[in-house]
Amino acid sequence: VSTQSTGDKQAVGRRLASAVLSIVYEQEVPWFPPTFTNYSSSSTNLGIQVDLEFSSITVHGELMVTTPSCPATKISCSGFEVLVSGNWIAPTQIKATASNIVSLLLPAGSAQPKGVRYAIDCWPLTSVFDTKTGLPAIPFDTTYGRQKPRSRKTKYHKTTSVREVLA
After folding, report:
1. Residue 157's pLDDT band (boundaries 50, 70, 90)?
2. pLDDT tens digit sequence for 65-123
3. 11, containing H or E segment
4. Which of 45, 137, 142, 158 could form a disulfide with 34 if both were Cys (CB 3.0 to 4.6 A apart)?
């Protein structure tokens, strides 16, 4: 487990301990962060709405959306970008609309999106968290040839190593 990018070693240790309790000792301990599964889009009177679905298996409470500021520029940044007409654009509004759904609003007149990415940057900012565990959603990019990342099962078999699960 690399902790190079954070000074908070205790959070990394707690998460690793929770993973071991869940996988090795088969205790009901939430440890895996919210994981993107699918997206859909629809036209509204305000613009294009993009609904991002996160696996209900990995969302233990509800999703919470914050808007952090970039440390370098002090500009609000959600970490979300949507591919529209060959360009990556930032949504105008982001909100959690259900326990495992985050909705993005694109400007009126936008074309239908061809992809969505989250926290894909050299120094990514995360804005989606699980209210129960406090864990941030895993970064994703739907344009890397797959829209649906591999699904994770609720129970891990004893043959699954921690290294395979955390990879």
Report:
1. very low
2. 988 776 666 656 788 999 999 999 999 999 999 999 999 999 989 999 999 999 887 77
3. helix 9-23
4. 137
Measured in Å, how far apart are the chain's first and last C-alpha atoms? Answer: 10
Helix (H) or strand (E) holding 16: helix 9-23
Q: Alpha-carbon distance 165 to 106, whole Å? A: 35
| Angle in degrees, CA 73, 77, 79, rounded to 5 | 125
For 65-109, the DSSP string reads: E--PBPTTT--B--SEEEEETTEEE--SEEEEEETTEEEEEEPTT
Phi, psi torsion values for 97, nearest 5 degrees: -110, -10
Phi and psi angles of residue 106, each rounded to the nearest 5 degrees, phi first: -100, 155
Predicted model pTM: 0.74
Q: Round to whole Å and give the CA distance between 138 and 155.
A: 19
Dist. CA 140–CA 82, nearest whole Å: 12
pLDDT of residue 7: 62
Among 7, 4, 11, 10, smallest CA distance to 134 is for 11
Beta bridge partners of 14: none
Token pair for 136: 């941030």
